[in-house]
Specification:
The chain is α/β, with parallel strands linked by helices. It has ten helices and ten strands. Strands 3-2-1-4-5 form a five-stranded mixed beta sheet, with helices on both faces. Helix 5 packs antiparallel against helix 8 and helix 6 crosses helix 8.
């Protein structure tokens, strides 16, 4: 079964074709990240305009790369939630129009479910149940994946997401956008124990909080500037990366230990962070659990993950008509 996926929830315009939920036939992305970097982060209006400009082109490119025509597509899967609502609506309305014109089933896909499905593309033998940390620019969730379309959230951020914290700290340090790769690069030559950064307290065994950590970095930088001192950017980047990685890994491994999970997964844009991958690899080994990591090319937003999850949603009978609307927020459990 060939599923055409469309993703436009943030600043990447994506289209891809996946066969039977496991094999990527094509994956095309047009990113506006370089332009967003001029403003230190995503400007929703600019993102939406770029989606409008690119959506037809990337969809055509995905079909051409796969060597398929629209007639050979079995269903269209599209991100309908959550995300920047203007951006979401561009991809959603395009997919609705295309599905109507081609008389193909329309399959709504929750963005976080898509990130988890990226693991199926990297590990074709992986099957639920498993435990997954989904960490991205807008979300940080620890999810019990019960089967392909049933999810239970065990923990989440109570304020900022991990990726959002990376972006804001990167901007504070003058490292640019997107923050995750910029922080990682700067941290490579830094001392992770140079700055004593806090571990924010939060209620809930598996919940996390990053607002206080982000603010601590901002305060240290501002204090140094007011006193005429230089902040060692590599050291601060390394200290921040170490702390946020420690928090995420500790919570996921605690959830795995308490639930007895033997399959542990990582997904989302923050899953590309080398230190987090190393930390979880060591932690999973200590627990006697198997760790599954997505390919680096599938960590960030892409349409292959949407098409992969779309396959399982379609098999479960989850299709929509043209009244389907986009949502800025939506629980993964309800999606």
């Amino acid at each position: 079964m060939n599923i055409l996926g469309i993703e436009s929830s943030c600043d990447d315009t994506c289209a891809a074709i996946v066969r039977d939920g496991r094999a990527v036939a094509s994956s095309c992305i047009a990113s506006s990240a370089a332009e967003q970097n001029l403003y230190g982060g995503v400007v929703p209006e600019i993102a939406s305009r770029r989606h409008i400009e690119h959506i037809s082109q990337v969809t055509r490119a995905a079909l051409d790369e796969a060597g398929l025509t629209l007639r050979e597509i079995d269903a269209l899967a599209v991100t309908y939630a959550p995300g920047l609502i203007g951006a979401v609506l561009v991809g959603l309305n395009f997919a609705k129009g295309l599905a109507f014109a081609a008389q193909k089933p329309l399959v709504p896909v929750h963005h976080l479910r898509g990130h988890i499905a990226a693991l199926y593309l990297t590990h074709p033998t992986l099957q639920p149940p498993f435990l997954c940390l989904v960490a991205s620019g807008g979300h940080s969730h620890i999810v019990a994946v019960q089967d392909y379309t049933h999810f239970q959230v065990l923990g989440r951020t109570v304020d900022d997401a991990a990726g959002e914290a990376f972006d804001k700290v990167s901007r504070t340090l003058g490292l640019g956008y997107p923050g995750g790769p910029a922080i990682g690069k700067a941290a490579a030559s830094g001392n992770p124990r140079a700055y004593a950064l806090p571990t924010p307290h939060v209620e809930g065994a598996y919940n996390v909080s990053f607002s206080g950590l982000k603010t601590a970095v901002l305060n240290l930088v501002n204090q140094a500037r007011m006193q005429g001192r230089e902040v060692c950017v590599p050291d601060m980047a390394a200290s921040f990366q170490f702390r946020i990685t420690e928090i995420l890994a500790e919570k996921l491994l605690a959830a795995a230990r308490d639930t007895g999970a033997k399959q542990i997964c990582l997904a989302g844009g923050v899953a590309a962070n080398a230190l987090l991958r190393e930390t979880l690899t060591a932690g999973a080994k200590r627990l006697g659990a198997q760790l599954f990591l997505p390919a680096l090319s599938l960590c960030g937003d892409n349409a292959a993950m949407v098409a992969a999850q779309g396959y399982y949603e379609y098999r479960a009978g989850h299709t929509a008509d043209l009244s389907l609307n986009g949502l800025a927020t939506q629980s993964i459990e309800e999606g």
